[in-house]
Amino acid sequence: MESEPEFKYKQCIIIRNDVKMSCGKRCAQAGHAAIGAYEKSSPTLKKAWLSEGQKKVVLKVNDQRALFEIKTLAETAGIAAVLIQDAGMTEIPPGTITALGLGPAKSEDLDKITGSLSLL
Q1: Could you please report the per-residue DSSP string of 75-103?
Q2: CATH homologous superfamily, domain 9-113
Q3: Domain boundaries in the chain?
């Protein structure tokens, strides 16, 4: 029996649970967060993460304040972090902060910051 692959790197995408969005809208915001965080990451981390399969974990928080707190913790730890602000063209008001993208970074470093969050 094949063993599960071990991922040393990952991205964490965190979605606000208090903003009412359709499933498709949440997916779009997660995509924006993944790309935004990737673009801010170092070339070395990008290469390592890409080479092992681009693991992503999508998590949720209860409010905007929690997103800002996690972003601050990540940046203090040297992890690429990007907040996503919606343009307001469809379901939610313009300027609404919907998501946070972190990494790619070492899984163990992200777990220190996001380990208590629930999966979306």
Answers
A1: HHTT--EEEEE---SSSS-TT-EEEEEEE
A2: Bit1 (3.40.1490.10)
A3: 9-113
